[in-house]
Design a protein that fits this description.
Length: about 55
């Protein structure tokens, strides 16, 4: 039997302020910053895949 989905809590105070500032920061990234983030993530992914074995 499935469990009911709980309501999402509403952020208030410092948590809400931090969430809003992070949302604005992501939207204001330049193309160069996005490319750098993508490159860093790709390198981290490749490093992690060296330790992961896929069984198909």
């Amino acid at each position: 039997m499935a469990r009911p989905i709980k309501e999402t809590p509403i952020l208030t105070g410092a948590d809400a302020d931090r969430f809003i500032s992070e949302m604005e920061r992501v939207d204001s990234l330049s193309k160069e910053e996005r490319a750098a983030n993508r490159k860093k993530l790709s390198e981290e992914f490749k490093a992690a895949m060296k330790h992961i074995t896929l069984c198909l």
